[in-house]
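The authors assume throughout that readers already know how a fold can be written as discrete tokens. For illustration, here is how one protein appears when written out as sequence plus structure tokens.
>
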Amino acid sequence: MLQVNNHLDVPFVPTPFPVVRAMLNVAELKASDQLWDIGCGDGRLVIAAALEHGVHGVGVELDPTLAQQARNEVEWAGVGHLVKIIEDDLLNVDFSEATVVMLFLLTAINLKLRPKLLMMPPGTRVISHRFAMGNWIPDAAWTLGTTPIYRWVIPHNGPELLRQLEQEPTAPNGNPTTPP
């Protein structure tokens, strides 16, 4: 039986397969893409990207049990030549080579990643299942049933946008606020 670490900042909740497929479609994947799933859990997203789109992928997972589960799933799916699983803290990993970043994290963690994301090359796509990024408005949003999926495309002025976003006030939940 899979025992997951319940002392992590983000609990493991598997992304339903229809949402996985929707996220991959929203990403508009090309065979040349390098997809990174930050907080990959059991690896289902990077595995599906490899199987369905032939995309190289890297999953990052802090929980050792889930990281091993993801490695086992990669081997079982036969996509080890396309997918690598890294056991590490998502806040410490260098994912700057990614052309697509997938997230299913809490808004507070997304906001911690936002500075790294906005320093990525222009055109990098960031896809988030369910959780937004505070006052950084997505370029597009979809709803699958009741599940929101957001897409941001890193602009040419990413560092400048980051400075602007950090100057705007946000509520404790990460949502924008109106100054008094």
Observations:
- The longest strand covers residues 147-153.
